[in-house]
Amino acid sequence: MIQYLVRRILAAIPVLFGILIVTFVLARVIPGDPCKAILGEKATPAVCERFIREKGLDKPIPEQLFIYMGEVLRGDFGNSIRLSLPVTRLLAERLPTTVELSFVSLLISMVVGIPLGIISAVKHNSWIDVGAMVWANIGVSMPVFWLGLMLMYVFSLQLKGTPFWLPPSGRISPGTPDDPFYTVWGWVLPESGMLTGILAFIARLNILNALLSANWKLLSDSIKHLILPSLALSTIPMALIARMSRSAMLDVLGQDYIRTARAKGLKQNVVIMKHAFRNSLLPIVTVIGLSLGSLLGGAVLTETIFGLSGVGRTLYEAITARDYGIVQAFTVVIAFFFVALNLLVDVSYAYLDPRIHLD
Amino acid sequence: MTNSKTKDTPLGAEGLSLKSVSLWQITRRRLFRRRSSVVGMIMLGFLVFIALTAQWLAPYSYNEVLIGKEKVKGRQAPCIHLLGCPADQPQHFAGIDGNVRDQYSRLLYGARLSLMVGFSTVTFAIIIGTVLGALAGYFGGWIDNVIMRIMDVLLAFPSLLLAIAIVTVLGPGLINALLAIGIVSIPAYARVMRAAVLSIREMDFVSATRALGGSNMQILFKRILPNALTPLIVQGTLGIASAILDAAALSFLGLGAQPPTPEWGSMLGAERNQVFTAPHLVFYPGLAIMITVLSFNLIGDGLRDALDPRLAHTS
């Protein structure tokens, strides 16, 4: 198991380097003068010359790549020119929004998608099956941004005044108390430092923070704000997971050992959950891994629509404002995340199927 | 394949006429037997018809501003005579957009762009992906390693994000967006092709060609490629669906088609802040995208099942 893990992690290293090279190249081949792109059109030649020397842009390209990699590995992404903030700090501020949104969306898509697929497979060709699959086909074909806007129209405008009204944007309503849990607990922390940073990061995950500090007002408010974006974002993964669960279950349910299990007189529930579902988990986990990509890409769209300042929206704004420092850093971080999550999926294979770690 | 042949023809008839049934005939028959793929094909046929005849179907040109020509206001709700809109008002099935143009006409013209986007990006990605995958699978060794590691890196980015990053570099615009989506989808085809080549490479008929003195290129393109086509076709059909979705997303963000191009994603993006006051401007373009993507998904699924020999006895 450990050997398998180590091998998987080692195999991911070239990919991580590849990601760094791709983002480096993307930033270098941007047409036009890098100085004018970053400092603006009015930069004088003298200022530009200093800027290029300071940023090391006059050095040979391989050396620049080397310096860039060193910086990234130290967690230093430079400053955002537009917001004049260290990119790392910006990332620490914006990442919790995206983490919360994607996590909740993935949870919804699994909690709904997997049972739906199982029921469809067990009741093969019934109206539940047909209905679920029609719905799943429509679900994978829906543009995330359209669904988001339509949900917003229905729940924030049409249902205004009813208990079903949901807020169209933001993470919490203004005025809702959102003190970090460590202040509520009365901890005294140093101004900066690793621990403070990590705790502040956790405190920005609103739901977790509300639970930790027993702040029920914050909890209900942040859940209300999260419903629409996470519904929009979870639809495609949910449909993918439901379809894959169904076909994996159908595959397994046709096997001989299922008939044997039934012949032994096992209860339907035991046959389905213990014999069939356990063995159809591999393809389900695979499709969960695959849908992480659409989840992270969809986060850009969902956050833009619902006015959430997460990683995706910041990235989009940085692109339109040509703030390349942010674009580069955020793309690297999201890609690293993606690789790490896929690694997790790979590792879970070994856990789910004991035969795998032998090869 | 023989399996389903015996199933489709009665036993007696089989002995009398030895008409060969090609893979494509079987596929077509299975495809038409599936209700969902028939629905998909009807929808696609409908869209192709609209795309081809948009200039005759559309009551207005896609960029015709109606100020001074008709008594309509910007972002006016749809007016359909059959649904009770007064007959003295001009009919606009999908309302008027923010620039006082007939949205219905723009939607019809948009079908052209969407289909063009889907086919062109996937064609681009299939050609490059197939060549790369075939080279990697056939020659193996360091060629395989280099090509597939590059593909791994491309796959390490969420596809929409990588496309966004590429468009940032190339500059916004429909062609650049198409190029970005094309590049992003190359790895999928390269992988499919490599896997197919790896399995076919060792077959006897390939060895036979080699023994007869066939060159590498001859073996690769005349023997292996035709036999590796089926997974590519399935992947390509489903790929068109996701290419259309991604292109619409890029245009929605303002990175793809630029106004006044009647692209559904950019039409939706331009009016997204008006969703509360003029929902029809958001609803119809999105619906159009969904129908188009759905049609390719349904056909792709049907093709996958129809071409899958494992399913021969269950269908």
What does this structure look like?
The complex is a heterodimer of chains A (359) and B (315). By secondary structure, chain A is mainly α. Chain A has 16 helices and 2 strands. In chain A, helix 1 packs antiparallel against helix 16 (324-352) and helix 14 runs antiparallel to helix 16. By secondary structure, chain B is mainly α. Chain B has helices spanning 2-8, 11-16, 23-33, 35-57, 103-139, 141-155, 159-170, 174-201, 204-211, 216-227, 229-252, 264-270, 280-307. Chains A and B meet through helix 1, helix 6, helix 7, helix 14 and helix 15 of A and helix 6, helix 7, helix 11, helix 12 and helix 13 of B.
Amino-to-carboxy terminus distance of chain B: 12 Å
Query: Could you state the order of secondary-structure elements of chain B as H and E?
Result: HHHHHHHHHHHHH
| Content of β-strand of chain B | under 5%
Main beta sheet of chain B, described? none
Radius of gyration of chain B: 24 Å
The helix tally of chain A amounts to: 16
Count the strands of chain A?
2
pLDDT < 50 stretches of chain A: none
Keywords:
heterodimer; A: 359 residues; mainly alpha; two-stranded antiparallel sheet; 16 helices; 2 strands; globular; B: 315 residues; 13 helices; 69% helix; 0% strand
What are the SSEs and their pairings?
The complex is a heterodimer of chains A (359) and B (315).
Chain A: H1 2-28, H2 34-39, H3 45-54, H4 61-73, E1 79-80, E2 85-86, H5 87-122, H6 127-141, H7 144-158, H8 181-184, H9 194-203, H10 206-212, H11 216-253, H12 256-263, H13 268-279, H14 281-305, H15 311-320, H16 324-352
Antiparallel strand pairs in A: 1-2
Chain B: H1 2-8, H2 11-16, H3 23-33, H4 35-57, H5 103-139, H6 141-155, H7 159-170, H8 174-201, H9 204-211, H10 216-227, H11 229-252, H12 264-270, H13 280-307
Helix pairs in contact in B: 3-13, 4-5, 4-13, 5-6, 5-8, 5-11, 5-13, 6-8, 7-8, 8-10, 8-11, 9-10, 11-12, 11-13, 12-13
